[in-house]
């Protein structure tokens, strides 16, 4: 699971060689460590909207060195551009060119973040198509808004040194200083978003709490993670626990060995349960509510692959993937939503996949199930909002895990380079994105699918 | 033992019945007064959860696992299931029948390797195949007496990792060598060793006093009671089918934790039928005059495995959001004189059960579930036949009428040792945990309390019977 190429091009001769030959030069990403959440250097805030002012004020509160002019600073850690008030394509150039002048000062592990408003057209996760309730936009305004998408995604591709570029889309009618706008900015600045690149997160309403304990964003919450015995699920469990939650790991009885070790380490009960059990939702509620009185957070992580070209697909392979990856999520979520055991702000995160976004050769069943997750999440959003909660999905790209370790070596090397960060992500990267979406800081983000893929070329 | 005691016997029994009667049905009074916890005498011992590793035929995936490895895994799985990692329990009692001498503190060492607070005391128990039952009894009694609030009872056995001892001659020579001071004495010690002494001593299931293996003993009982081959094979097939059905419906999802890649008991043959079992050759009783009927299919194989059961007070459970499954009501042990041939080696439960039932004013037919450990299919059948026999019940048990028969639909409903295998000391914990869960489920479904009887026979002519009631 170690990326030997990444190690090689970051040391001595390998570094020189890669540079001379023009080979990809991925760097170790700036990941979250307690007490070191922000990029090194000043934060440059460009643009003059209310969103810029709100973000700048929040960042001052986080003790960041906030500047409003590129010429003011030598070392830039992050650049934040407010396009929320852009009226036409002409409004894009000024801040873009100012960003240009700041790029050479941008340090490794830095951030570019845009704040803008959504428009129908290019899909950005689940925010594609016409937003319900959105006012009719003037064509020039829509052009400016979608222009930001093209600009940001290109910037992300041009960055090196582990710098990422992501955008916050503030829905019309949502205040520029809504809690989740601040929350999303904080997430994109943080090492928690290290492998999120070229993505947009839509803030759809004013809910949420920007005053969470950022070191422990899910403190005091009671959470359940399915498929928790190994891989991404295990990491999600550990990260949520480290972020303050009480996490009950769930996995199939056959994985009970690893599951019980994890549970004992975290001093929580383990639940051996097949998520396709029709009673799965009730069994989860019985244990968790019986033990802790309520259930706040759920991560639908359990998933399987049964890859075959469609020409060779059989019923068992198709059905089992659909049953585990999407039908179980639908059934459990339905049970949870009709229960009176949920906490006051229930949050669900579902595991989708970039295969669900872009499709993948040999994965018709898997891609169908994962695209299904994205659709189900968007449709469940209003249902859970009625209960004060949120549901979102995370779509991992190439993640270094037991699953991807099985890919033949040459294909694996190519797969992990096919993104702007030129490397695979880690289970921690996925876990951090999930943790953010489960925190009250993301209370205004609902029905979205966030890709954790290093801006994979696939399905962009 | 005197006339005196005998004369007083009825009175004593009556008195005992009285006290037990109050002790066993305290719930309404206690619940009403709310003095449950503060009155140790009325404290119930309840089974909260159980766990075992899948049982494996000897020489299988656990071939290199020690008793300590397996017992630790069983305890850790139980700790995880109940979310009590880091907690200090009042006691952990467990044991193994086949044990290395270095494992003198097997249970304590397992606790030290587990996720429990290391300040949890532990002790070993050894009562042959009834070891697990005796640990449940012991822990429950401590709870009822108010000595502890929560404990784990369990057991483990490995037939794969069995201790192999040196021969008696070699052992004496080696001890002499250890005491030798001069070179001459050392040489002298070596000189005593004979070539035959180099053969190691492997443990066997033979009875020390008769030299007969357990199977040969049971063959005598089988013949005595006229248990047919077909009846034995039917029981064996039912055991496999019931176990497979229980796995199929997820019954073991919260009773078993995988170990060393094994996720289900590997002795289980879901497609087992009377016809298939009928093709096996007899292995025991071949030297007896009648037909030999005991085969590898209707006898338990040598097995590796471990089990653990969490037993607590109601209060301890409720403080942790745990739901009691069943109350451990009472236990009765019995032993028989098999050495003279007066009674069969594994017939002691036939004596323990009626005494236990009488103490609680119950009949066999009052029971909702009956678990009779399947050491051999014929053990179960012989015991049940004895209870149906007016002669046995009169002559041996001193009863006016036979105990009667057991509805077979209540017997070993989720399979028993013929299918799961029988890692001696682990069997009691397996049965208690599964039965407690089944009782709780049935009580919920039927809306009335359910009672179960468990009976386990053991080497040395012993047996333990236990009553569980849905909590």
TrEMBL record, chain A:
One Pfam family from the UniProt entry? adh_short_C2
From which residue to which does any coiled coil extend?
none
Cite the Ketoreductase domain residue spans from the record.
221-402
**What SMART domains does the entry give?**
PKS_KR (SM00822)
Q: Where are the transmembrane segments?
A: none
Q: Which SUPFAM superfamilies match?
A: NAD(P)-binding Rossmann-fold domains
PANTHER family cross-referenced by the UniProt entry: 3-OXOACYL-(ACYL-CARRIER-PROTEIN) REDUCTASE, 3-OXOACYL-[ACYL-CARRIER-PROTEIN] REDUCTASE FABG
The entry's family comment says: Belongs to the short-chain dehydrogenases/reductases (SDR) family.
- State what protein this is by name: 3-oxoacyl-ACP reductase
| Upper taxonomic lineage | Bacteria, Bacillati, Actinomycetota, Actinomycetes, Micrococcales
């Amino acid at each position: 699971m170690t990326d030997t190429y990444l190690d090689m091009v970051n040391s001595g001769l390998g570094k020189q060689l890669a540079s001379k030959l023009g080979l990809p030069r991925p760097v170790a990403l700036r990941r979250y460590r307690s007490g070191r959440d922000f990029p090194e250097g000043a934060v440059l805030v460009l643009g003059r909207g209310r969103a810029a002012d709100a973000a700048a004020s929040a960042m001052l509160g986080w003790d960041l060195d906030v500047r409003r002019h590129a010429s003011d600073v030598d070392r830039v850690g992050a650049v934040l551009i407010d396009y929320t008030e852009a009226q036409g394509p002409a409004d894009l150039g000024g801040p873009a060119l100012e960003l240009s002048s700041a790029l050479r000062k941008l340090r490794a592990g830095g951030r570019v973040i845009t704040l803008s408003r959504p428009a129908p057209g290019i899909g950005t996760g689940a925010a594609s198509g016409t937003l319900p309730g959105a006012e009719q936009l003037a064509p020039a305004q829509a052009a400016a808004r979608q222009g930001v998408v093209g600009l940001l995604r290109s910037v992300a591709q041009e960055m090196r040194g582990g710098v990422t570029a992501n955008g916050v889309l503030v829905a019309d009618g949502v205040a520029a200083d809504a809690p989740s706008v601040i929350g999303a900015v904080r997430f994109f600045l943080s090492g928690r978003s290290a492998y999120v690149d070229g993505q947009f997160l839509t803030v759809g309403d004013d809910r949420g709490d920007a005053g969470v304990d950022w070191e422990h964003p899910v403190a005091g919450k009671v959470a359940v993670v399915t498929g928790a015995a190994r891989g991404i699920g295990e990491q999600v469990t550990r990260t949520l626990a480290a972020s303050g939650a009480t996490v009950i790991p769930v996995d199939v009885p056959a994985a009970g060995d690893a599951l019980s070790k994890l549970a004992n380490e975290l001093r929580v009960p383990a639940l051996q349960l097949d998520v396709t059990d029709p009673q799965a939702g009730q069994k989860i509620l019985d244990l968790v509510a019986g033990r802790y009185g309520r259930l706040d957070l759920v991560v639908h992580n359990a998933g399987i692959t049964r890859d075959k070209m469609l020409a060779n697909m059989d019923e068992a392979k198709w059905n089992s993937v659909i049953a585990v990856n999407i039908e179980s999520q639908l059934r459990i979520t339905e049970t949870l939503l009709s229960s009176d055991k949920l906490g006051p702000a229930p949050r669900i995160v579902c595991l989708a996949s970039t295969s669900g976004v872009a499709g993948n050769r040999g994965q018709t069943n898997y891609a169908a199930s994962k695209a299904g997750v994205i659709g189900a999440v968007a449709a469940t959003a209003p249902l859970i909002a009625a209960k004060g909660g949120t549901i979102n999905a995370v779509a991992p790209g190439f993640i270094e895990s037991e699953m991807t370790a099985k890919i033949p070596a040459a294909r694996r090397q190519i797969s992990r380079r096919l993104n702007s960060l030129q490397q695979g992500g880690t289970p921690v990267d996925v876990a951090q994105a999930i943790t953010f979406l489960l925190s009250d800081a993301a209370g205004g983000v609902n029905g979205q699918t966030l890709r954790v893929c290093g801006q994979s070329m696939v399905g962009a | 033992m005197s006339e005196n005691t005998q004369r007083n016997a009825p009175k004593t029994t009556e008195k005992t019945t009285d006290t037990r009667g109050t002790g066993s049905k305290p719930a309404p009074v206690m619940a009403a007064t709310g003095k449950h916890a503060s009155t140790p005498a009325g404290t119930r011992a309840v089974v909260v959860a159980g766990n075992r590793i899948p049982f494996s035929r000897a020489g299988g995936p656990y071939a290199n696992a020690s008793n300590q490895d397996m017992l630790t895994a069983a305890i850790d799985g139980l700790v995880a299931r109940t979310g009590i990692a880091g907690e200090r329990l009042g006691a952990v009692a467990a044991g193994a029948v086949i044990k290395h001498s270095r494992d003198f503190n097997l249970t304590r060492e397992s606790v030290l390797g587990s996720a429990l607070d290391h300040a949890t005391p532990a002790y070993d128990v050894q009562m042959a195949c009834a070891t697990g039952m005796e640990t449940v009894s012991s822990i429950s009694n401590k709870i009822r007496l108010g000595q502890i609030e929560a404990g784990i009872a369990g057991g483990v056995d490995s037939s794969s990792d069995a201790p192999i001892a040196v021969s008696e001659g070699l052992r004496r020579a080696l001890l002499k060598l250890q005491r030798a001071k001069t070179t001459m004495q050392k040489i002298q010690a070596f000189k005593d060793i004979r070539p035959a002494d180099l053969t190691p001593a492997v443990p066997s299931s033979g009875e020390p006093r008769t030299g007969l293996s357990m199977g040969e003993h049971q063959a005598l009982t089988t013949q005595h009671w006229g248990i047919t081959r077909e009846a034995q094979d039917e029981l064996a097939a039912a055991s496999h089918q019931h176990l497979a059905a229980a796995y199929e419906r997820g019954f073991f999802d919260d009773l078993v934790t995988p170990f060393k890649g094994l996720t289900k008991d590997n002795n289980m043959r879901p497609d087992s039928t009377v016809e298939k079992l009928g093709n096996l050759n007899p292995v025991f009783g071949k030297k007896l005059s009648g037909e030999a009927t005991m085969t590898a299919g209707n006898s338990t194989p040598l097995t590796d495995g471990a089990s653990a059961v969490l037993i607590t007070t109601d209060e301890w459970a409720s403080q942790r959001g745990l739901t009691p499954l069943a109350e451990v009501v009472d236990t009765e042990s019995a032993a028989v004189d098999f050495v003279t041939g007066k009674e069969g080696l594994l017939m002691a439960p036939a004596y323990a059960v009626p005494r236990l039932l009488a103490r609680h004013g119950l009949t066999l037919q009052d029971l909702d579930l009956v678990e009779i450990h399947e050491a051999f299919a014929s053990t179960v059948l012989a015991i049940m036949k004895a209870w149906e026999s007016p002669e046995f019940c009169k002559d041996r048990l001193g009863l006016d009428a036979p105990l009667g028969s057991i509805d077979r639909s209540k017997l070993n409903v989720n399979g028993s040792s013929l299918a799961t295998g029988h890692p001696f000391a682990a069997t009691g914990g397996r049965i208690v945990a599964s039965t407690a869960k089944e009782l709780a489920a049935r009580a919920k479904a039927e809306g009335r309390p359910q009672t179960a009887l468990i009976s386990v026979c053991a080497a040395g002519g012993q047996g333990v019977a236990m009553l569980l009631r849905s909590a």
